[in-house]
Amino acid sequence: MDTLDLLLHPVRLRVVHTFSGDRTRTTTDLCVALPDVPKTTVYRHVGLLADAGVLEVVDERRVHGAVERHYRLRRDQAGIDAELAAAMSPADHRRGFAAAMAALHAEFNAYLDREGADPTADSAGYRQATLWLNQDELAGMITVLRGLFADLADNEPTRGRSPYLVSPIFFPTGGPPASG
Predict the structure, then answer these.
(1) Sequence ranges of the domains in the chain
(2) What's the pLDDT score for residue 173?
(3) Which own/partner pairs from 75-84 qualify as long-range (CB within 8 Å, at least 24 positions apart)?
(4) Would you list the DSSP string of 96-107?
(5) How many separate helices (H) and strands (E) can be counted in the chain?
(6) pTM given for the model
(7) Which of 84, 68, 73 is nearest to 12 (CA)?
(8) Residue 35 carries which DSSP code?
(9) Is pLDDT above 70 for 179?
């Protein structure tokens, strides 16, 4: 399976998200974290990600006669690099965007279904805004956001921290640029 087929799938994207913070997880842990995904589906997608080297086995233990594997995400294998992204066709981008939106929608629904979910108290947001930017302003904004995300990306899961899914999306909305 090629990298695009592997990573541009909503369930596999969600599995990858659950490994944030360098966490080690079992398939049982993943089933708990993704209660809306059938267990057989979780196992199948974990197998595909492990076979492709996106997940690595870091420990194995016998539990009631079965082998329980503990997996960790190989971050260097869990993304689409700039070279591959540049080679993506419009159809690949459509498929990737659809997978990302399906994963985002499923994660938001799972959040809302949790006991005590409070979007206001949790600072959940999904606002959209149109910004008029030239290429230099767009590049500057992306640089600032990448720096901010990079500064926070290595935060460890600790008491008082909760994982937040962040999905910046940028694309021209169509129509001609402003004249004058």
Answers:
(1) 3-114
(2) 80
(3) 77/52, 77/53, 78/7, 78/16, 78/19, 78/54, 79/7, 80/3, 80/4, 80/7, 84/3, 84/4
(4) HHHHHHHHHHHH
(5) 7, 3
(6) 0.81
(7) 73
(8) T
(9) no
Adjacent-strand bridge partners of 72: 24, 56
Which CATH number fits the domain 3-114, given the four candidates 3.40.640.10, 1.10.10.10, 3.90.1150.10, 1.20.950.20? 1.10.10.10
Comparing CA positions, the residue from 126, 138, 127 lying closest to residue 170 is 138
CA distance 103 to 91: 18
Q: How confident is the model at residue 180 (pLDDT cuts 50, 70, 90)?
A: low
Q: Nearest Cα to 129, choosing from 63, 173, 76?
A: 173
**Closest to 56 measured CA to CA, from 32, 17, 25:** 25
User: In which band, very low, low, confident or very high, does the pLDDT at 2 lie, cut at 50, 70 and 90?
Assistant: confident
Taking residue 52's Cβ as centre, other Cβ atoms within 10 Å add up to 18
Q: How confident is the model at residue 154 (pLDDT cuts 50, 70, 90)?
A: confident
